[in-house]
UniProtKB/TrEMBL annotation:
Source organism, top-level taxon: Bacteria
Record-given protein name: (Fe-S)-binding protein
Lineage: Bacteria, Pseudomonadati, Bacteroidota, Sphingobacteriia, Sphingobacteriales
Family matches, as Pfam families: CCG
Organism: Olivibacter oleidegradans
PANTHER family attached to this UniProt entry: LACTATE UTILIZATION PROTEIN A, UNCHARACTERIZED PROTEIN YKGE
Domain Cysteine-rich per the UniProt entry, residue ranges: 3-84, 127-221
Length: 244
């Protein structure tokens, strides 16, 4: 199979290590990966702010860069969900639908498409897992705790394959961190309070690292950790799954 790597703009600018780890991990698993040049923002910030009608250029560019690949994989649940739910084109509706059906967040691709059962990775640290809202409630990467249903977690399943890792139990395992894209700008005080509560849960249980499938949520919590001069760090799940 040939996979196109979709790197969200904020990952490209602030956390390129997450993108490199995604590439290296996929190649280790035997996947042929291409990076379509000319890719840019998927349009999610505008859409989240109520200006989806201004995302036409982003949509057409995304379709142009990513059409024709077997799969499109990204280390960002929120950006993937935006493409799945909102990518459209008046010029090429059939192609846009094909692109939407082929885009996957990294952990769902590893679990559902590659069906990974073992990983050659080692990460000897206490780790807390943050279940991002877009991934959990939009992409169904893990079960919501308020439902009476069999629990599951695609990120958790993959992390359990990592040698020497110690996954901590949180009091509120699927609580929102408060980032919410432009919500953290429009409702700064509420966003910060939610982030502090989310970070505190991890710290109470001795997390050395907080990981997740969305670097945006981790970035929000990293800012809070740094302001409190905490030794706890954030790390994208791809970097753990790719560790040696």
């Amino acid at each position: 199979m040939e996979v196109a790597l979709f790197v969200p703009c904020y990952v490209d600018q602030f956390y390129p290590g997450a993108a490199r780890a995604t590439l290296e991990l996929l190649e280790k698993l035997g996947v042929k990966v291409s990076y379509p040049e000319g890719q840019t923002c998927c349009g999610q910030p505008m859409a989240n702010s109520g200006y989806e009608h201004l995302t036409g250029g982003c949509n057409e560019n995304f379709i142009k860069r990513f059409q024709g690949y077997d799969y499109i994989v990204s280390p960002s649940g929120s950006c993937v969900l935006h493409i799945k739910d909102h990518l459209h084109s008046d010029q090429s509706p059939t192609i846009s639908n094909e692109v939407r059906e082929r885009v996957y967040e990294l952990t769902e691709f590893l679990t559902d498409i590659l069906k990974v059962t073992a990983l050659d990775a080692r990460f000897p640290h206490r780790v807390g897992v943050h279940q991002s809202c877009h991934g959990q409630r939009g992409l169904m990467l893990s079960q919501m705790s308020e439902l009476t249903a069999e629990p599951f977690s695609k990120p958790g399943k993959l992390l359990s394959m990592v040698k020497d890792i110690e996954l901590i139990e949180l009091d509120r395992k699927d609580e929102c961190c408060g980032f919410g894209g432009t919500f953290c700008v429009a409702e700064e005080a509420v966003s910060v309070k939610m982030g502090k509560d989310r970070v505190a849960d991890h710290l109470r249980h001795g997390a050395e690292f907080i990981t997740g499938a969305d670097m945006s949520c981790l970035m929000h919590m990293e800012g809070i950790l740094r302001r409190h001069k905490s030794a706890t760090k954030v790390i994208h799940i791809a970097e753990i799954l790719n560790s040696q």
